[in-house]
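Researcher: I'd like a structural prediction for the single chain below. Treat it as a standalone chain; there are no partners to consider.
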Amino acid sequence: QVQLVESGGGLVQAGGSLRLSCAASGRTFTRNDMGWYRQAPGKEREFVATINYSGGNIYYAGSVKGRFTISRDNAKNTVYLQMNSLKPEDTAIYYCYMRLEGVYWGQGTQVTVSS
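Model: Treating it as a single chain, here is the predicted structure.
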């Protein structure tokens, strides 16, 4: 059983930056893929970024390439999403996931980009 808790969401002005964190509980943060999805009101949940355990394989959605950076600190069982040059279109609830034998999801953290 895996528990994921996102944090760092909030209100930010367009062009600003925000860093999201996803903390995993227990000793399950080993040899797993983690990443982020987001869901805007009235839209389907969409892929944002993913990173494997070693950090050697990273993929981003085209809409966030060059602006977002995913990273992880395995010693802290934490995955991060650094978001720069934020746009109003980035407004969504951001969900962290971990893939083991199945996929586990966090509860989400809300990001709102004004203007």
